Amino acid sequence: MARMLSRCAAVLLMASPSAGLSFDVAAAKNRPVSKVITLLKDMMKQLEKEAEEDEEIYDKMACWCETNDKEKTKSIADAEARIEDLTTKIEELTAASARLNTEIKNHEKEVAKNQEALDKATAIREKQLAEFNAEEKDLLESISALKAAVTVLSKHHGGSLLQIPRTHMMSVAATLQYQLRKHSSLLQGALTPSERRVAAAFVQAPQDYFDAAPTFKQSYAPQSGEIFGILRQMKETFESNLSASQKEEMAN
């Protein structure tokens, strides 16, 4: 650009009609062409200055663009790598989620199955407990009744049943008959056949032992010791069975 302006100025000087061997500097400065040349020189300086400034700005911008491009390129590469990692992680987690969902369903089925088994076991246990409570209550009542009968006979143990009041003897006979009938299976091995016959004879005709004058049957009637032993054996059998049932219940 500077060379172009110099050439323009030279052309204007050569074209001037007042050009000659004698050159008036003061007059030349005041000529229109000189003013134009001066103006052009000033413009050239300004343009050169602006060009330098533009070049400096360009260098800065180019440096910024290069630096920013590197940073952006790195950021993009990092982001793409991160996206790839996250995509892989998502796939892994999706697979894990599907696996866990399957396991959860299997566990739910197992829990439902176990709950069903638990409900059945609970129902069975409740039934067993109810049966035990009923059996325990029945045995306690039987033991209490036999204990009362034994107490009655123990007052006359070793003597004849004729010494026992009629009402007491009838009560003992009723207790014996009821317990023999109700717990026949439990007493199956507790009493001998002979003891069962003695008990049956006493239960069937307890009034024969209350007559004032002894009869033929009374002469062969069992003494209180035999009935006393039978009642005591029955009571001990019930107590043993109750103890075994209670231990089994505690174990359950």
Radius of gyration: 65 Å
Q: Could you say which structural class the secondary elements and strand pairing correspond to? A: mainly alpha
General shape: rod-shaped
- The string of secondary-structure elements, in order, is HHHHHHH
Give the tally of β-strands: 0
Note the main sheet: none
| Total count of helical runs of at least 4 residues | 7
Tell me roughly what share of residues is in helical segments: over 70%
Which residue ranges are poorly predicted, with pLDDT under 50 across at least 5 consecutive positions?
A: 1-22, 210-222
Give the key terms.
252 residues; mainly alpha; 81% helix; 0% strand; rod-shaped; disordered N terminus
Structure description:
The chain has helices spanning 2-15, 25-30, 32-154, 166-182, 193-204, 216-219, 224-251. It is mainly alpha-helical. The chain starts with a helix and ends with a helix. The model is unreliable at 1-22 and 210-222 (pLDDT under 50).
